[in-house]
Design goal:
The complex is a heterodimer of chains A (336) and B (437).
Chain A: H1 3-39, H2 46-66, H3 77-106, H4 110-132, E1 145-147, H5 149-156, E2 164-165, H6 166-188, H7 190-200, H8 202-207, H9 212-237, H10 242-247, H11 249-259, H12 264-282, H13 286-292, H14 311-325
Antiparallel strand pairs in A: 1-2
Helix pairs in contact in A: 1-6, 1-9, 1-11, 1-12, 1-13, 2-3, 2-4, 2-9, 3-4, 3-9, 6-7, 6-9, 7-9, 11-12, 11-14, 12-14
Chain B: H1 8-27, H2 30-56, H3 64-79, H4 84-114, H5 119-149, H6 168-187, H7 192-212, H8 214-217, H9 233-238, H10 240-249, H11 253-285, H12 287-297, H13 299-304, H14 309-335, H15 345-359, H16 364-393, H17 401-408, H18 413-428
Helix pairs in contact in B: 1-2, 1-16, 2-11, 2-14, 2-15, 2-16, 3-6, 3-7, 3-14, 4-5, 6-14, 11-12, 15-16, 15-18, 16-18
The chains are: A mainly alpha (336), B mainly alpha (437).
């Protein structure tokens, strides 16, 4: 029995990766939930908005790198992020002007809006592939590890190491800052309050003189910013590939719905629920359990509930369970 | 039979699409034109299946890919070579495990429905699910290892039944229908966009199973050389009768053989397409079709009229999925192999959606037209885009990175084009090319 080593193994392989992944999902789900709360449709183009924003950031990062600009131990992409956000926000606002606005003024059914967002998804996906290609891009630079497994072992004398990648720490820190700013904005500023009023009761908000075009524009800018940040953090942590980002749509939707579509707090909770479920169900627990139980009881199988290829199945099963037994999600979301 | 003659405008639309295919044949090659036509026929059947669900009943199914893949699996299980040795190694035990898994779920559902809510029920459910899962893995895992060990390089799967591949088409429909029943039972009560997300997820799971369960259909190692319903080109080229026939007509035997094979496929697919159109048109114009549209347009009032909305939704979901599954089996037949790695939602789900929307939701002829037109575009956008980009970049210096990049990216024009077409149709002709009456 070696509880300490078991705990470190758990932290290293389950908790830290799950925390970073959860923060990325939470940021993605926040974007989906905001669009749903204000514009009242599920935006299928969100995964590709993430890809587009990440691509824009990568291009600026490359330009900075070739100009010799760097950010010390932090990735250069962090410096490029504001430019990526600006480009994505402009693109998304243009999409709204050219595509979505027409249907909004028509008061089209949410289903029609979803199909329209499928069209936007195709266009953004095509553009991203057209500009940067379908291949995998690694754009992370700066320090690789906050603490490596080897350093941890020498420092503590334990048999197991705990490695924390810079990108993982960065993900969590950035996510906390972004979420704090977002909630401050929604709770304290005049625009944020008008957004919440608009989300609660559109007619009443319009009667009290809230400018709907402004609310919609701010929502799109926020969604673009959240999508770009989530995409860049995911790309730094793993790598960037347009198709993977399209597939992220599923866990992100799962996170937003599990938390309660339209509820920002819910989106964050949902992100972590989905991330930790995916990681715990697909992790092979053999090593951790071997440390925790007496030697005679050590398992001889991998103790892996499902292979990692089924991680989508995990987020999806949770999604179905929540939809069947708790249709409005963990935190009361809204339903159109 | 009530195949209402499409009006003059619709006939003109079909003629225009025919011109596209004939033009491809004359200016490119008849071989590639027929190749596109065969996939277009299959796509039209998929679009008809989706139109049943979305056009007739308003069900937002984004899981088309999953049913297509199940059809492909049916083709493998029905027609690939039987492997008695592999089957004996673990087949019955795998079957037992699957039965145990299904029984666990059935028992859990029964407990949930029969027992009163409370801690007792939760504990019983947990015990059944956890115990059932462990039992399932205990029975399944050794059998899988045993099957995958038999002749792993060439097979490593349980093999098929060795039946004629034409039989796989209805089997594909049946397999997809069974899956649709299970999915419909759980997910059809959901709101439209939740249903879309749920079906999108289910399709991903089905493809993940096909990719990873090597004992079933070899996973990404692919099952190749499925039997064909039509003769092989090489056999034709060896047959004396065919050679004299080709000579009499002045054809080159190699080209002629491949054209004849493609035409034979087109005949088979065309026959199925006609049958599906006839059935869909009959259904649309029957009291059943009117009831489905009434439910689609106003669920509440249809329910008030005594229509069982849930049951009807389940019915039409199963029917549409069966049509898609059959088309999936036909596609695997045409390819001659099952390649789970190539199933992608953009190609197999959302492209079919573009076909239905562009053709006209709720209109069977529209779906067929959309299937032909969009599939032709999907294939031809790449060469056309390459030509266009070569035109645009003609003035640039050879070897400039922008020129190289633009020309290399021509392949990605298709997604962009499909998106633009979808958005344009939704905006300026939301009821599609052939609107529903």
């Amino acid at each position: 029995m070696d509880i300490l080593n078991g705990l470190v193994t758990f932290l290293n392989f389950v908790f830290v990766p799950g925390l970073a992944y959860g923060a990325q999902l939470a940021l993605g789900a926040l974007g989906v939930t905001l669009v749903y709360a204000i514009l009242r449709f599920s935006n299928f183009a969100h995964g590709d908005t993430m890809a587009f924003g990440t691509m824009a950031t990568i291009l600026v990062t490359w330009a900075m790198q070739s100009a010799g600009i760097s950010f010390g131990v932090l990735p250069t992409a962090l410096l490029a992020l504001p430019f990526g956000i600006a480009a994505t926000a402009l693109f998304v606002l243009a999409t709204d002007r050219v595509v979505y606005r027409f249907y909004r003024h028509q008061k089209a059914a949410p289903t029609i809006m979803v199909i329209v967002s499928l069209g936007v998804m195709f266009v953004m996906n095509g553009l991203t592939r057209f500009i940067i290609g379908v291949g995998e891009q690694n754009f992370s630079d700066g320090g690789r590890f906050l603490i490596t497994a080897g350093e941890f072992k020498t420092a503590t004398g334990l048999a197991e190491g705990l490695a924390v990648k810079t990108t993982q720490a960065l993900t969590v820190v950035v996510a906390v800052i972004v979420v704090a700013l977002l909630f401050w904005f929604l709770q304290k500023t005049r625009t944020g309050k008008s957004m919440r009023a608009f989300s609660d009761n559109e007619d009443l908000a319009l009667l009290s003189g809230i400018n709907p075009d402004r609310v919609v524009a701010v929502t799109w800018v926020l969604a673009a910013a959240l999508a770009t940040i989530a995409g860049v953090l995911y790309g730094l942590d793993k790598s960037f590939k347009p198709f993977t980002y399209f597939q992220l749509l599923l866990p992100i939707f799962a996170a937003a719905i599990v938390g309660g579509l339209g509820s920002p707090i819910g989106a964050i909770a949902g992100g972590f629920v989905i991330a930790f479920s995916e990681v715990t169900v697909t992790y092979a627990w053999k090593k951790v359990v071997t440390y925790l139980v007496p030697d005679s009881m050590a398992p001889d199988t991998l103790l892996q509930l499902m292979s990692t290829d089924y991680k989508f199945a995990v987020s999806f099963s949770i999604l179905i369970l929540v939809l069947l037994f708790m249709p409005t999600g963990l935190f009361k979301g809204k339903s159109v | 039979m009530k195949l209402k003659a499409p009006g003059a405008r619709n006939a003109a639309l079909f003629a225009a699409v025919a011109v596209l295919f004939i033009g491809t044949g004359m200016y490119q090659s008849w071989n590639s034109s027929l190749g596109i036509l065969n996939m277009a026929l299959i796509s039209a059947i998929m679009a008809l299946g989706l139109n049943l669900q979305w056009g007739f009943a308003g069900l937002f199914n984004t899981g088309v890919m999953g049913f297509v893949a199940l059809g492909g699996l049916a083709a493998v299980l029905t027609s690939s070579t039987p492997l008695p040795q592999s089957w004996q190694a673990g087949g019955p035990r795998i079957a037992l495990a699957l039965v145990l898994g299904a029984a666990t779920i059935a028992l859990a559902v029964a407990i949930y429905q029969r027992l009163a809510a409370g801690r007792g029920r939760t504990l019983a459910l947990l015990a059944v699910l956890v115990g059932g899962f462990m039992l399932y893995r205990y029975v399944l895992d050794p059998a899988v290892t045993a099957v995958e060990a038999v002749n792993a390089a060439a097979y490593g799967n349980i093999g098929g039944l060795g039946l004629p591949i034409l039989l796989a088409w209805p089997v594909g429909g049946l397999l997809a229908a069974c899956a649709a029943w299970a999915i419909g039972k759980t997910a059809l009560g959901l709101r439209s966009d939740y249903l879309a997300i749920a079906t999108l997820g289910i399709a991903e799971i089905i493809v993940a199973v096909l990719k990873n369960e090597d004992w079933l259909a070899r996973g990404v190692k692919n099952v190749i050389s499925l039997p064909r319903p039509v003769p092989y080109e090489v056999d034709l080229q060896k047959s004396a009768g065919f050679l004299t026939w080709a000579q009499n007509w002045g054809f080159d035997p190699v080209t002629a053989s491949s054209l004849v094979v493609k035409l034979a496929y087109a005949g088979l697919f065309g026959a199925v397409l006609l049958a599906v159109i006839w059935l869909s048109q009959t259904a649309l114009n029957s009291p059943w079709g009117r009831m489905m549209r009434a439910i689609r347009d106003n669920e509440v009032s249809a329910a008030a009229m005594g229509k069982n909305v849930t049951l009807r939704h389940l019915q039409v979901f199963i029917l549409g999925s069966a049509v898609i599954g059959m088309a999936g089996a036909m596609m695997t037949t045409l390819d001659g192999q099952l390649t789970p790695g190539t199933y992608q939602p953009l190609r197999f789900t959302f492209l079919i959606w573009v076909m239905v929307i562009v053709g006209g939701s709720g209109s069977n002829w529209g779906s067929v037209l959309g299937g032909f037109l969009i599939w032709w575009l999907w294939v031809m956008v790449e060469p056309i885009g390459l030509l266009a980009l070569q035109g645009i970049t003609a003035g640039m210096a050879d070897g400039s990175w922008l020129k190289v990049h633009l020309i290399n990216s021509a392949a990605h024009m298709r997604l962009l084009t499909m998106g633009v077409i979808l958005l344009l149709v939704l905006r300026f002709s939301p009821r599609g090319l052939i609107p529903e009456k």
